[in-house]
Design brief:
Blueprint: E1 3-9, E2 18-24, H1 33-46, E3 69-70, E4 73-74, E5 95-99, E6 108-110, E7 113-114, H2 117-124, H3 146-156, H4 163-167, H5 174-185, H6 194-207, H7 218-222, H8 230-247
Parallel strand pairs: 1-5
Antiparallel strand pairs: 1-2, 3-4, 3-5, 6-7
Helix pairs in contact: 2-6, 3-5, 5-6, 5-8, 6-8
């Protein structure tokens, strides 16, 4: 396959960025999208040019670090992570636009790399259980209804990639935050901090500069792990209940 790549290049956080065009041939349909970028970078290095900076880690669709906007879609045309996107999703001769996440809360560091530490600070605000529990308990020591266990596992699948923010017209982080809140709030271990967790995490989300949610649903559509839109509704209910309790 021969492809034309239009890639966002930005030297650092303070520099102005622009799209640069590159021609890449010899691309196998079986390559992953990141392998194709590796091919581009090898050729740039051999020609004495600066390689394109992009994030990646596991390359197995687990860590979420590989986040890119491809032809206007978060992670590209398939509902998966960028590292699990294969070049057979494109055709020979295609022009592909490759950009970083576009959100004020995710400032560009260099080229396609953005700073997503805002997500870390939301987790630090309450996305954990503080009670000392010692070693792992016996599996049946704390009974959890299957419906609650399934719901917790569904939300625990969030990998924090930020696709929900990237596709939201408001740059909202509600789907990410709700996944982290609901994951713990439905389990017995998370119950003691249920109110403070949702209040603190939502407050931190707002402080980070993410936009407000208007339930357009783009976040759930783009989520590579299928976190449902109803997750946001559940978090809103939790927040209202906790807020009323605090005010009493």
């Amino acid at each position: 396959m021969k492809l034309t790549l239009r890639v966002w290049r930005q030297k650092n956080a303070d520099a102005e960025g622009a799209m640069s065009t590159y021609e890449v041939d010899g691309v196998s349909p079986d390559m992953s999208f990141l392998e194709m970028l590796d091919v581009l970078n090898e050729r740039l290095i051999l020609s004495g040019e600066e390689p394109v900076a992009f994030d990646h880690d596991c390359r197995e669709g687990i860590c979420g670090a590989c986040s890119l906007v491809i032809n206007g879609d978060a992670h590209g045309p398939e509902r998966t992570t960028t590292c699990q996107l294969h070049m057979r999703s494109f055709r020979d001769g295609d022009t592909i636009d490759i950009e970083p996440w576009r959100a004020s809360a995710f400032p560009v560091i260099k080229d396609l790399v953005v700073d997503r530490s805002a997500f870390d600070r939301i987790i630090q605000a309450g996305g954990y259980v503080t009670a000392p529990t010692g070693s792992a308990p016996e599996a049946h020591a704390t009974p959890v209804p299957k419906a609650d266990a399934d719901l917790a596992f569904e939300h625990a699948e969030c990998i924090g990639c930020g696709a929900c923010v990237a596709v939201c017209p408001n740059g909202a982080a509600m789907l990410f935050t709700s996944a982290k809140v609901n994951h713990l709030n439905v389990l017995p271990q998370g119950a003691p901090e249920r109110e403070t967790r949702v209040l603190d995490m939502v407050a931190q989300m707002d402080a980070e500069g993410f936009g407000g949610c208007t339930l357009t649903g783009e976040c759930a559509t783009a989520c590579p792990k299928g976190i449902p839109l109803m997750s946001i509704t559940s978090m809103n209910k939790e927040w209202l209940r906790a807020n009323r309790k605090v005010r009493r």
